[in-house]
Design a protein that fits this description.
With 322 residues, the chain is an alpha/beta fold. Among the domains are: 84 residues, Orthogonal Bundle (Arc Repressor Mutant, subunit A); 96 residues, 3-Layer(aba) Sandwich (D-Maltodextrin-Binding Protein, domain 2), CATH 3.40.190.10. 46% of the residues lie in helices and 22% in strands. It has 12 helices and 11 strands. Strands 3, 4, 5, 6, 7, 8, 9, 10 and 11 form a 9-stranded mixed sheet that branches. Strands 1-2 form a two-stranded antiparallel ribbon. The longest helix is centred in the last third of the chain and has 26 residues. It is globular and about 70 Å long. It starts with a helix and ends with a helix.
Length: 322
């Protein structure tokens, strides 16, 4: 049987990459942690940790257990609070540092669900690019961060992949000759004076699309928040290279996706080794519940779509022709 105490030891050891540091964090002796981890491996009949000279790393089975253990411990915190009656009058703040992307709408729907049950919970938001988000997380100023794209620091945090991903494209004046196109190819983008995302250039997020042309782009300005970049684009100084949906498109602006399509995944992240508050744990539980409900609803709609009905109605006649 998996004990909560042992799971805490295991998670701490994985996150600290050291039994000694894990023991210090947990305020127990190093032999206590070592013995518990060995007993856990023996009970499961699987090696969970690679004990290398300078650090602990997880095996494939260990990575699976770590992912499940984090969820179990979060659920344990939430359940204990519920049983103690702390959630019946739960009050406090859930804080987030958010990048700009459509996935924010999912996070807001989850908070709306949470607040409907616990009106004493409020939300505090900070907006910014990856550096702002990770700095707020590291300084423990926020509970959660929203990272957009394949951030190189993603492995440093617990991460929940969100269902939305964002399309990269070009936001330009509707009067531009290229605005009549349904999308833009690499050479067409490379011909434009660009107002580009500093984060995307720094992380080489678009290197696969541009290839060798990346170093030859005509970058006239860089930005970290797309709203301000759009204001510059309105003057005609350049076209914004960014993600869809962040800035509203009107009759003066048009968004053209890149061809071939390039998408940026979105992740809700939180700091390893830091216990979530009851409010934050409750929010995470509501978010996972919302994502599950919306996925099931989407699958049900797909199953009952006209195309599905056509394929089903055709099957008897198809069988009769055999």
């Amino acid at each position: 049987m998996l004990e909560i105490r042992v799971l805490r030891y295991f998670v701490a050891a994985v996150e600290a990459r050291s039994v000694v540091r894990a023991a210090e964090r947990l305020c127990v002796t190093q032999p206590t942690v070592s013995r518990a981890l060995l007993d856990l491996e023996e009970a499961l009949g699987q090696p969970l940790l690679k004990r290398e000279r300078n650090a602990l790393t997880v095996t494939e089975r260990g990575a699976l257990l770590y992912e499940r253990a984090v969820q179990i411990l979060e659920l344990t915190t939430l359940t204990e609070a519920q049983l103690k009656g702390e959630l019946t009058a739960l009050k406090g703040t859930v804080s987030m540092a958010l990048g700009e992307c459509r996935a924010v709408s999912t996070l807001m729907r989850a908070f709306d669900r949470l607040r409907a049950q616990y009106p004493g919970i409020s939300l505090d938001m900070v907006s910014g690019h990856d550096a702002v988000v990770t700095r707020a997380l590291e300084q423990e100023q926020v509970d959660f961060g929203l990272l957009v794209g394949r951030s190189p620091v993603l492995h440093d945090y617990h991460a929940l992949s969100l269902p939305e991903s964002d399309r990269w494209g070009i936001l330009l004046n509707a009067t531009h000759p290229l605005a009549v196109n349904p999308c833009l190819k690499r050479d067409e983008v490379a011909s434009l004076p660009l107002i580009a995302s500093r984060q995307a250039l720094l992380h080489d997020e678009l290197s696969g699309f541009f290839g060798a042309s990346l170093t030859r782009l005509k970058v006239v300005a860089t930005y970290n928040l797309m709203y301000n970049a759009a204001q510059l684009a309105r003057t005609g100084a350049g076209a914004v290279l960014g993600i869809e949906g962040v800035v509203s498109v009107d009759e003066n602006f048009k968004f053209l996706p890149l061809e071939p399509e390039v998408r940026a995944p979105c992740y809700l992240v939180w700091k390893k080794g830091l216990s979530l508050s009851p409010c934050a744990a409750a929010y995470l539980d509501f978010l996972r519940g919302l994502m599950k409900d919306e996925e099931e609803e989407s699958q049900a709609q797909s199953a009952s779509s006209p195309s599905s009905a056509v394929s089903i109605s055709r099957s008897p006649s198809a069988q009769s022709r055999k």
